[in-house]
Amino acid sequence: MISLQEFLDECPTSFHVVKSSSRELVKAGYALQNYREADPTHFAHDKGVVTRGGALIAWHWPNDIDFVDGLLIYGAHSDSPGLHLKPNSSSATLGWAQLNIEIYGGVLLNSWLDRDLGIAGRLHFANGTSELVSIDIPIARIPQLAIHLDREISEKGLLLHRQNHMKPIWGTDTNVNFIDWIIEKSNVAHSAPLTGFDLQLFDTQKSAMLGSSKEFLVSGRLDNQVSCWAAVKSLIENAEPQKPILVALFDHEEVGSESINGAAGPLLEHVLEELLLERKSSTTFASLAKKSIMVSADNAHAIHPNYPEKHDHQHAPMVNLGPVIKRNVNQRYATNGLIASRVVEAARSAKIPLQTFAANNAMPCGSTIGPVSATRLGIDTIDVGVPQLSMHSVREMCGIKDPNYLVNLFTILGSTDF
Predict the structure, then answer these.
(1) CATH of the domain at 281
(2) Is the pTM value of this prediction over 0.70?
(3) Residue 14 near residue 121 (C-beta atoms within 8 A)
(4) CB 333 within 8 A of CB 299
(5) 58 in helix, strand or coil?
(6) Which of 144, 171, 203 is the last residue of a domain?
């Protein structure tokens, strides 16, 4: 499995997360098919993976393993907040060539200012084919207004209008069509005309280690590509699971998960039904679900030294001290005390450090795929994740040790009957 930094650097979009994960799984002996084209016999493979857009389901389900005690599922999401291109992407204002963007998810808008932006995603052609593209050279920028023209910014703060102030500049030749330029620069050789695209901007700065002892990892899209990488790495490295293990990487979590490739959609349920059918099992999906466990992995809020009042200091994780079990009685996270105690004991026996997050009562917390999947499937679920700062920024920060702790946690849960 490639390193986490390599994974982050080559995955500017959810589609690239799926491509990179699929490649690594195939190298490890997993049979790959597009879910739309997958024939029933594909689900008879001990090791298989199906993909659809920015979603991926992989499994290690040996036919000689008794699954009477259910499955173990590692769930994560492949998408991150960002700026996506609108269908009519090119515009001109006062001699500047600009891009029309749509804001995806809960973006920290200020973090995108004055960054060197590339473009990545999918191009779709009239013959029904699609091509992944990634132009990782700086081509666009959202310049912040000079302080001389915004004298009150230091007192009143930065105020950004989502429509007017977030349009990137990419040139001064207003006659150039941006999509034509993308096709030329991406070297996509295609005889059929372009009929559509799914493209988004990304920060071209590569991931890096930071700090006096290089104890931090900084990168775009740590939320939630760290969890995707850890889940796939653990699946590949666990040669002898005690029960069938699946990895489910869903798209569109940042906008609510309600899509065909999101956790609220039927993809995982359909794959599980296909797997049961091909194993000619008399076990019903309902019987399987009530004995199975999902580990929903999504990054958590580390305590921020400049904003201590935002945290409950009894439940405020610190970087490099281990993964976080996330709790919320209002069901923003799916964890309950019973499943948490089982995970804590498994981690303790393997000497894997764990922490706990619960929100300050005056600060509403976010949510994850955990409650969505648990509601959809009826599977006991625990929410865990790596603690980080700068969540939803164009460039985020976590501890260098915690991603490997998360891999170890996944591995111990899959290697023991926890």
Answers:
(1) 3.40.630.10
(2) yes
(3) no
(4) no
(5) strand
(6) 203
